[in-house]
Write a structure and sequence with these properties.
Length: 592
């Protein structure tokens, strides 16, 4: 039952969002000019249209914010009203057919007339019963007004009296509807007062942010806009395919897809729907990546950083910054293809952040399962090839300028870095740089696997890993410097703009200056740690034999580790660790 209530909470609010979207698309000015060519004749019509426009927005927002139970009751009333309309329409059609046949006898005297009467009677009884069920009442006669023309025909009234009876039945239904509406006239005001009281109490207890989060959860905003956009996109795809059969062959499936997506993001409501849709798609891809690498164990300890939020926010910010809503459909399709490219590269970066620790842990854990290694290596191979393919495609179709260089170089930078970039709208996340990062991960993984199949551990493994990461950071820094240099050159000798200058400044601070500071600080700390370690004395084999101590890391006998092919599970061979003699007690962990 709670699941059904959640579905109803979303499904019953979708029509309100659809109406808001249609109202936003409605050009009131053009509609007023179409209805009234001469403005001087009736100036009140323009004001009436604008009042109806704003009133429609208020009603849609009010219905959108209603509680679930009130929404269900509202839809039940609307469905009952629709059924009554269908009943009266059926009675009107029956009356029209009777007057066209001009049969004045009893209904049971003609088989055709009798069949038509029974069909109409069965339909009216079904409608009346259904209305009573919807209104949860046993007084079925309240909804039997559409039956009056059929009863009049059964009683043998002349055909000329049927329109009068039908008009009387319609009047009875209208009176009933007006009575119910008048009896519930103050219900919206009472509901609004209750909502205001709850909001006031919420503000006193939880403050404004907590109240907004509560409304966000109660209205299920992400799922609501997701369903709204999927409905809009499905209808758009259907209209594209139904309009012309040759359109698919002429333009191709990719163009139709991008055009449909561009058509479905022309309003703020549809743009929000696309944002949540992209976020959920990115979340599905990342969960699929986790499941491919770890199986069902991947969902036990989920990472809150990989929720698809970054991809959705990136799309929304880029759409707002570039003025996507104000463009024509062809320009919007072109710009949206670039924005979606950025979102895909951001998703690839998140996939690398998921795969990198898993692959390295798999290599260091000495796991010999071929299937686990195949899954990790196949995903790394995909992340190695696919970003390069994307960079090749976008560089092939667009002229190489500053903005394209940022796109491609950011893709390259992603390959180098393990952490996410610090600037979301410059971080286009992963093309060639994604491949470089994957190459670094595969190199470290290969070191672990070589060490696994050797009897003796590799010397200076941690130094090699440090140098690999250092090379990646240096390449990352050099690419960022080249981007800044190229952007500065283009701004000085090409087309200068405030937007370009601000991007260069922000890019210089986050991707050049902060990276240079972080790299230099890491280098100094590494050098200081190396000096302290090298200043300690190293144990000889005789000292190890005399003390008979154990390693402070892997708890194995140090004398056995000093053998030429001795086993060791430490990050680096224990025999090369500096030695600080402690008390002469076996197992005292005096060697450090």
């Amino acid at each position: 039952m709670p699941r059904l209530e959640e579905v109803a909470n979303v499904a019953l609010r979708v029509p309100s969002v659809v109406l808001l979207d249609l109202l936003y698309r409605w050009d009131v000015q053009a509609f007023a000019e179409l209805l009234r060519p001469q403005q001087e004749e009736a100036p009140w019509r323009r004001r009436a249209l604008w009042h109806a426009y704003y009133l429609g927005h208020m009603l849609c927002v009010g219905v959108l914010l209603l509680p679930v139970r009130s929404l269900v009751k509202l839809y039940l009333y609307g469905l009952t009203l629709l059924l009554l309309f269908v009943g009266h329409q059926t009675a009107r059609d029956y009356m029209r057919h009777e007057m066209e046949d001009e049969f004045q006898g009893a209904v049971y005297q003609d088989p055709v007339v009798l069949s038509r009467f029974l069909t109409a009677l069965t339909g009216q009884i079904f409608v009346s019963t259904l209305c009573a069920l919807l209104m949860k009442t046993k007084q079925v006669w309240l909804f039997c007004a559409p039956l009056l023309p059929l009863l009049a025909r059964l009683c043998g009234l002349p055909l000329q009296a049927l329109p009068v009876v039908n008009a009387f039945a319609t009047s009875v239904t209208v009176v009933e509807v007006l009575y119910v509406a008048a009896s519930h006239l103050l219900a919206p005001f009472h509901l609004a007062a209750a909502v205001c009281r709850e909001m006031a109490q919420g503000l006193e207890m939880y403050r404004l942010v907590a109240l907004a989060m509560s409304l966000w959860s109660q209205l299920a905003i992400p799922v609501l806009f997701l369903v709204f956009w999927l409905v809009l996109f499905t209808l758009q795809i259907y209209s594209f395919l139904a309009s012309s059969n040759s359109l698919l062959a002429q333009q191709g499936l990719l163009f139709i897809f991008l055009s449909s997506v561009a058509e479905c993001c022309g309003t703020p409501y549809s743009l929000l729907g696309l944002t949540f849709t992209v976020s959920y798609l990115a979340l599905a891809v990342l969960n699929l990546c986790k499941f491919y690498l770890l199986g069902y164990d991947a969902f036990q300890n989920g990472n809150v950083m990989h929720r698809g939020v970054t991809e959705g926010v990136t799309l929304l910010l880029l759409a707002l910054q570039t003025g996507l809503l104000d463009l024509q459909i062809l320009q919007r399709t072109f710009l949206l293809s670039i924005i979606l490219f950025i979102v895909v590269t951001s998703t690839l970066q998140s996939m690398i952040e998921i795969a990198n620790p898993i692959v390295l842990a798999l290599g260091a854990s000495q796991n010999r399962s071929p299937w686990k290694h195949f899954r990790s290596l196949s995903l790394c191979l995909f992340l190695l090839v696919f970003p390069c393919f994307m960079a090749y495609k976008i560089a092939r179709f667009f002229h190489m300028d500053f903005w394209l260089l940022i796109l491609v170089s950011s893709c390259m930078l992603t390959s180098l870095q393990v952490r996410p970039d610090l600037l979301p709208h410059i971080r286009v996340s992963s093309c060639m740089l994604t491949s470089l990062q994957v190459m670094g991960t595969l190199f470290v993984y290969a070191l672990f696997m070589i060490e696994l199949f050797q009897d003796a551990p590799l010397e200076k493994t941690d130094e090699i890993i440090y140098y690999v990461n250092a090379v990646s950071r240096v390449l990352e820094f050099l690419v960022a410097v080249c981007v800044v240099a190229y952007g500065t050159w283009e701004s000085i000798f090409g087309e200068w703009s405030w937007m370009g200058a601000s991007v260069i400044i922000i890019h210089s601070y986050f991707n050049v200056w902060l990276r240079a500071q972080s790299g230099w600080k890491s280098f100094l700390l590494r050098r200081e740690a190396a000096k302290k370690i090298n200043s300690l004395p190293r144990a000889t084999r005789g000292q190890l034999r005399d003390h008979n101590d154990v390693c402070a890391i892997c708890f194995q006998i140090l004398l056995s580790l000093a053998m030429p092919r001795g086993p060791c599970n430490c990050p680096r061979p224990c025999v090369h660790l500096p030695w600080n003699p402690g008390p002469r007690v076996p197992g005292s962990m005096g060697a450090q």
